[in-house]
Amino acid sequence: MKLNELTISQALNLLAKKEVTSVELTEACLKRIEDVEPKIHALMTVSGEAALEKAQEVDYIRRYVQKFLPGITPTALGLYYKPIVVGDLTTDSIKSGDLVKVFYEGYLIQDTIGVGIKNGTMFDTSGDYEPFSFTVGGGGVIVGWEEGIRLMKDGGEAIWVLPSSLGYAAQAQASIPAYSPLIFHIKVYKVYRATDVVPIIQKMPPGSPPILNNESIK
Q1: Collapsing DSSP states into helix, strand and coil, what is residue 157?
Q2: What is the SS3 assignment for 36?
Q3: How many CB atoms sit inside 10 A of residue 179's CB?
Q4: Are the beta carbons of 50 and 58 closer than 8 angstroms?
Q5: Hey, is 146 helix, strand or coil?
Q6: Where does 72-200 sit in CATH, by number?
Q7: Residue 42's beta-bridge partner residues?
Q8: DSSP character at residue 93
Q9: Which of 6, 91, 152, 153 could form a disulfide with 10 if both were Cys (CB 3.0 to 4.6 A apart)?
Q10: Where are the domains of the chain?
Q11: What is the phi/psi pair of residue 182, to 5°?
Q12: What is the DSSP pairing of strand 116-125 with strand 99-112?
């Protein structure tokens, strides 16, 4: 084993037995420092960049909420929720096991000269024709969606501000940088409870009338 690969206790033991000189041991220590210094520098650089990104995220959320959602406080997990349309008050809030169909738009936050903080790039949308469907609690969406949808009712509309911890955190996506807070405009189109029967429309050749089937979501 090379001297620069020894542990401290191993090196001191060799020195005590006079199997290595102090000069040789010093040279080995310096060589080891040279070997690990680039790795330490790389780690410090990554850590520093991440700290700056996190600081910017906190600043963006603070300024966005102050400008567009004044008075709104976050949930325990950090989600900011602003109801636009409350929805059907005769129904329960959405819960685990419900099949939900929603229309949505997702935006990044952008800081611009003159305008300041605003909705930036739209990184995703359901469009206006076909709603996005998912089962609450099924693990098919990010954590922020799982929490936000439980605050809504059938027919409700809301704005969500998600910190990156409820989105993709340090994992950058195709159009979403690491540590990006996410803005979602959500409209609940339809909620099917676990005991409901869901109508299924079969796709037919052009010119054929649609055929409706019923299928339980269980």
Answers
A1: strand
A2: helix
A3: 25
A4: no
A5: helix
A6: 3.10.50.40
A7: none
A8: P
A9: 6
A10: 3-64, 72-200
A11: -120, 140
A12: antiparallel
